[in-house]
Amino acid sequence: MTNKRRQIELLAPARTAEIGMEAVLHGADAVYIGGPAFGARVAAGNSLEDIERLCRFAHIYYAKVYVTLNTILTDAELAEAEQLIWKLYEIGVDALIVQDFGITQLNLPPIALHASTQMDTRTPEKALFLEKCGFQQVVLARELTHDEIKKVADNTSVRLEAFVHGALCVSYSGRCFLSCALTNRSANKGACAQLCRIPYTLTDEHNRVIAKDKRLLSLKDFNLSAHLLEMMEAGVSSFKIEGRLKDAEYVKNVTAYYNRAINEIISKDSRFERQSSGVSAPTFTPCLEKSFNRGFTTYFFNGRQPDIASMQTPKSQGEVIGKVVKINKNSIEVNTSMPMNNGDGFCYFSENGDFMGFKANRVEGKTIFPLSMPLIKPGTLLRRNFDAAFEKTLSKPTAERKIEVMVGLKFQPNDSFCLEMQDEDGLKVTRLEMFAADDAQNAEKAENTIRQQLSKTGNTPFVVKDVDIEMATAKFLPASVLADWRRNLVEDLLKLREEKRERDDMRFPDTDHEFSQAETDFHANVYNKKAALFYKKHGIEQVADAYEAGKENGEVELMLCRHCIRHSLGACLKNGDAEKLPPRLYLVDSNGNRLRLEFDCRHCQMKVLGSRKK
């Protein structure tokens, strides 16, 4: 008896339906996309018509479509959300990614709910609670280590989803109120002002400057591409790429890269299989460094790392090209083995640490002729953050995805032909066609024509692996007849695939098990009566209103971070380096807002505290 393989899902972002389709073509097993309202990226909403179009396309390959409905909702918004959820279910959406527990108390269709990373799932206890509630997939906090992920998996049976690539929030998701406090734009309502990316001045309690205008809360981008097998073995089933605001070129490249990496693992490991059907064949070689990145980090996956922040710039740093060896009057010579192109964009850090950039008007070998000469010196490390040739390639169609099929043709009595088409998932359609065919004068030629015509699948989702022909006497069949038969088989198989497509339909249960880890202050993000009712059902009688309700006006915890500024600056209190920085530290932005830092060394966390700006 063999063990059932665990299905692995590559989950890609989609700003639009078109980008979602490209993600599927480039190997995604599922895509997540914003709907008309209530998504955590207000700039990435899509109409029901577009989402339905994406669903129809993705479902051909048994890829899934998840809609993000992961903001907290007011009482007035719940009715609209309920109506929207029914519409999303009716157009074929496979699951909703949600944050607000109030949604679980609505009259819902039998649609799967996934617990958003905004729910801040860091412990086995929280994940188990969500599993008992009825969530079919739980998104883990980005900050977890390999061992922490494994501990969650060992104590639960729910499918676990984890981020593997893209931008990192410095605060635990769902625990950041900085934007709401200082700009009245709430991250929990999808309108984050990204204040973690701006410069701050670090001061002591007497306002003495320690570090001026540094992006002390800005992190590098996540990249766990080298640790996918470790994540699978730890218990992760869904591998999520961040980027619902990214363009198609980014999604194509990053999805294709991770698709290839996952396939390489699965080809050698019988414990796992892909969740969807078909093989993606990109026309380019994917390269993560060529897409937007602030430099890469594994974050905390392998424990705390010394260099996870991107304090000098929030802009893309691209790929390292080489060192500048000579500066001429109107050109720059670079020691590099990489080809460079006209129109490339280059960047570097000046001697003062400033991030600078320029564009190549012309390139001759290893010599760059900029549009305008930058202030750059020999020995400077040069990067390319815009590869003109690569981007031009990605702007065109760059991948096909095909489902393998076997075709059979058998001649039967009374001028009848039995045709079969069976796909890689074992689904088979059969047709009986009548045609008075003459015996072929050239048997080999006749069989080659049949094989050739039945193998043509054109722009359909299928590719024919083999054609099995059974005829005691070779028959002559016109190409037009064979083409009609092939088209009918393809149509029948597409219909059958849709009929047999499994959907994770399940009505969300009404549960009352204890929520022992519940927050009872504003961090619970309770913004409506239904959410409060959920907590009451699960043993928490009194829960404070969400920060967005405006009732918290004094100094409170606006961010909870595993990233630690003291550690990044070499002044970790646990490592005995306390004397390198004053005990009390503050962040001051360009508007004079002052944020107090508090260091919880027992839990190895940093808190950012401040008051609501009036």
Short description:
With 614 residues, the protein is of the alpha/beta class. It is built from 13 helices and 30 strands. The strands form five sheets. An eight-stranded parallel barrel has the order 1-2-3-4-5-6-7-11, surrounded by seven helices. A six-stranded antiparallel β-sheet has the order 9-8-28-29-30-27, with no helix packed on it.
General description of the model:
By secondary structure, this protein is α/β, with parallel strands linked by helices. It folds into 5 domains: 6-168 and 220-282 and 284-290, TIM Barrel (Alpha-Beta Barrel), CATH 3.20.20.70; 175-213 and 553-614, no CATH class; 318-394, Elongation Factor Tu (Ef-tu), domain 3, CATH 2.40.30; 402-500, no CATH class; 512-552, no CATH class. Helices cover 24% and strands 28% of the residues. The chain contains 13 helices and 30 strands. The strands form 5 sheets. It has an 8-stranded parallel beta barrel, surrounded by 7 helices. Strands 9-8-28-29-30-27 form a 6-stranded antiparallel sheet, with no helix packed on it. A 6-stranded antiparallel β-barrel has the order 15-16-19-18-17-20. Helix 1 (17-25) runs parallel beside helix 2 (48-60) and helix 10 packs parallel to helix 11. It is globular.
